[in-house]
Design brief:
9-stranded antiparallel sheet, mainly beta, globular
Length: 189
């Protein structure tokens, strides 16, 4: 059995929640009224290849590493982890643990293929497709993205399966974001 632990805090701005969570080196999915950004996180700031992201317009964020995920909205932040270590002191509102019967590692293929002509620098990769345009993703990995190898990127997640109350059926009760990884589409060389 796997236990997904959570704790919350109310009243922190996004930079304060980022700083309090300690998720340095993580990735952030940032939603504003006019844009959706993918950024890397360092000490309370979010950065894209173009520079620091203005976090004042962000109304929802999901920040994640392989160990934990921070979910922030304008009035509340929740930190999720399987780690048994104490939560950072700012996260002082307990949230009920989720006892999962099992976990399922999952992934989602991102739109676009690696676009070498648009790669913004070390630690980042640009994906391009006719449907969604260009998407820049933090990918701090030494895995080769050379021609013909790992030409795609996918988002890794973990699903938490529980037994439903009252009916006994199992279902996915929660999903935690883990990270991005290069991906070689099967059937390619």
């Amino acid at each position: 059995m796997t236990v997904l632990r959570a704790a919350a805090v109310t009243g922190l701005t996004l930079p304060q929640a980022l700083e309090a969570s300690g998720l340095d080196g993580g990735c952030a999915l940032l939603t504003t009224p006019s844009a959706y950004r993918i950024a890397s996180v360092t000490g309370g700031t979010c950065r894209t290849p173009e520079g620091l992201v203005d976090l004042s317009a962000v109304y929802e964020a999901r920040v994640f590493t392989g160990e934990a995920e921070l979910r922030w909205t304008q009035d509340r932040a929740v930190l999720l982890t399987e780690d048994r270590a104490p939560f950072p002191s700012a996260f002082d509102e307990p949230v009920e643990d989720l006892e999962a019967l099992t976990t399922l590692d999952n992934h989602y293929l991102l739109w676009g293929a690696v676009d070498d002509s648009a790669t913004p620098g070390p630690g980042w990769v640009a994906l391009s497709s006719s449907r969604v345009g260009r998407l820049t993703v933090p990918l701090p990995t030494a895995v080769s993205l050379a021609e013909g190898h790992h030409r795609r990127v996918r988002l890794l997640t973990r699903e938490y399966v529980v037994v439903g109350d009252g009916h006994g059926n199992i279902h996915v009760a929660e999903e935690r974001l883990i990270g991005f990884e290069p991906y070689l589409v099967k059937g390619t060389v």
